Amino acid sequence: MKVSFLIPVLVALVLSGSTVIVFAVLGFGGLAWMMVGLLCLGALCGVVMLNWVVKKTPWYITRFWDWEHERYPTCEWREKHAERDFDVVNLGSSMGQWGFDYAGLSIKGLNWARQPQSLQNDLRLLQTHHQILKKGAHVLITIVPFLGLFVPPRLGGTYIYLNVIDDRYHDKAFLKKAKLLKAFPLLFGFVSVRAAVAWLRRGRLKPVHASQDERYSVLDNPMTESELEVDALKWVEGWREEFTINNLGDEITDENVVNREIQVRTMRELVDFCFENGYKPVYVIPPVTHFLSRYFTPTFRRLYIYEFLDMVGRDVLRLDYMDRCDLTKVELYFNSFFFNKTGRALFTKTVLSDIGILTTR
């Protein structure tokens, strides 16, 4: 993403406008030149005002996760919440986000998984916020399909976390550009201008609040069997394209062998961080509906899940729920992949019971 095109424009407006006005005042020009200078400075003011408007729009707010400071224990979160010494936190991507819900339980838990979230950002989140956990707390590392393959980072993987990951742990290759985008969202280009115009047309200048995804409240599965089949195939086709795999039953390619080695090193670092700080890491392999699990061949499971975890070479409790019939029922999901509210409650209680911190299900 190119974010520098607007900077020379702003600099040119300031320098040209200021220079023309100074020259006009000193007598090296006339009223016309002074007007040109004022127009340049006026254009600059317009850009600054438009940038301010963009920051009030829902489009801008949703660029950055946890804008309201409700999910991660930042300084702002700590000012509003008295809870400390949490018993458990789960990391992960989509399956972690939709897999755990600690509301109403006798233990204190936090869900730090987001869709999508890399293993590298799992580590960075834990490094930033682990002090909120009690000694001996459990860190649930959600093992999602293809977690064992490294995906090259992008700028977006940094700026969406600016509110929640400490600068010390951010990817230094993207941090400066990410901060620039946050301060000057007009650098996103025309999409930011369009968002500002749409917001102004609605006559709303007050800041908005990020709303929760409506899928969190779904209690059953709204999809038919044919829709579930299509949904499952959609996920599989997406993975095939993303990771350059022809068939999930194929042996791992040379390129993905390298990508797996990168993930192994990151997982070791994450697990070692847990041990060094007195936490108990747990590998959690969630289930999915049979519409999707039928694509997870024995070869796929061996290469991308079990062999990957074995290569990490650390003594970590492994909870594998992929074949748990009571947790793969369609009615526990809102699609072929993710738990609905009913499924999340059941799965969370099951995991917490299995690690011994919840006595009843």
| Helical coverage, percent range | 40-55%
How can the largest sheet be summarized? 5 strands, parallel
The shape, in one word, is globular
- Main β-sheet, spatial strand arrangement: 2-1-3-4-5
Query: Beta-strand level of the residues, as a percent range?
Result: 5-15%
Q: Tell how many strands the DSSP assignment holds.
A: 5
**Helix count from the secondary structure assignment:** 14
Low-confidence stretches: 1-5
Folded structure, characterized:
There is one protein chain. This protein has 14 helices and five strands. The chain has 361 residues and is an alpha/beta fold. It has a five-stranded parallel sheet with strand order 2-1-3-4-5. The N terminus is likely disordered.
Could you give a quick summary of the protein structure above?
The chain is α/β, with parallel strands linked by helices and 361 residues long. It has helices at residues 6-25, 31-54, 58-61, 75-80, 94-97, 119-129, 156-159, 175-183, 190-201, 225-243, 254-276, 290-293, 298-312, 341-354; strands at 86-91, 109-111, 133-142, 280-285, 317-320.
How is this fold's topology laid out?
Blueprint: H1 6-25, H2 31-54, H3 58-61, H4 75-80, E1 86-91, H5 94-97, E2 109-111, H6 119-129, E3 133-142, H7 156-159, H8 175-183, H9 190-201, H10 225-243, H11 254-276, E4 280-285, H12 290-293, H13 298-312, E5 317-320, H14 341-354
Parallel strand pairs: 1-2, 1-3, 3-4, 4-5
Helix pairs in contact: 1-2, 2-9, 6-11, 11-13
Q: Which characteristics define this entry?
A:
five-stranded parallel sheet, 14 helices, 361 residues, 5 strands, disordered N terminus, alpha/beta
